[in-house]
Amino acid sequence: MSKEIVPRELIESKIFLVRGHRVILDFSLAEIYGTTTKRLNEQIQRNIKRFPADFRFQLTLAEAKSLRSHFATSKGRGGRRYLPYAFTEYGAIQAANAVNSEAAIQASISVVRAFVRLREMVSAHKELAVKLMKLERRLAGHDTEIKAIVNVIRQLMNGLHQPENDKQSGIKKQIGFRPV
Questions:
Q1: What is the pLDDT of residues 1-55, one digit of tens each?
Q2: Calpha distance 172→174 (Å, rounded)
Q3: For the residues of 45-87, what is the DSSP string, one character each?
Q4: Closest Cα to residue 6, out of 37, 36, 39, 29?
Q5: Are strands 56-58 and 15-18 parallel, antiparallel or unpaired?
Q6: Which of 57, 89, 104, 154 has its CB 3.0 to 4.6 Å from that of 99, i.e. a possible disulfide?
């Protein structure tokens, strides 16, 4: 396996959940592909037919504000004058084709692997949640059974102490089996 140009962990840290989709923002994608955000978006605009709504969409002001804490962006002069674009997994791959540089093509492999790994992690968590729910249901039944066992043990313990009390009261209990 060849060494990745951009570490997968770095890419994974730049993937966010927006509108129910895992996305990477245009400035992060540009950084990964070794270009500027302006150049990336210019190339996308030149090839806009390759980017349907499920590949790329522009964030709303509220979405951009909620994500701002996850990345450093300028709020004043010299910052962005428009809202960032979000690229889904398919859009990120298509963007590498639009930028069409060797670095972008190589980095897109790392991007794909990062998206796939995140998908696998989500799937594993779902499987774990289902197993945990089944275990909880099973244990709920066990709680009742354990309480019943504890009650029986307590009754037996009380029964073991009973003969001493009976000796004091003068009552003798017969030990053994009784014929029917």
A1: 455 667 778 888 888 889 988 899 999 999 988 889 999 999 999 989 989 999 9
A2: 7
A3: HHTGGG--TTTEEEPPHHHHHHHGGGS----STTS-SSPPEEE
A4: 29
A5: unpaired
A6: 104
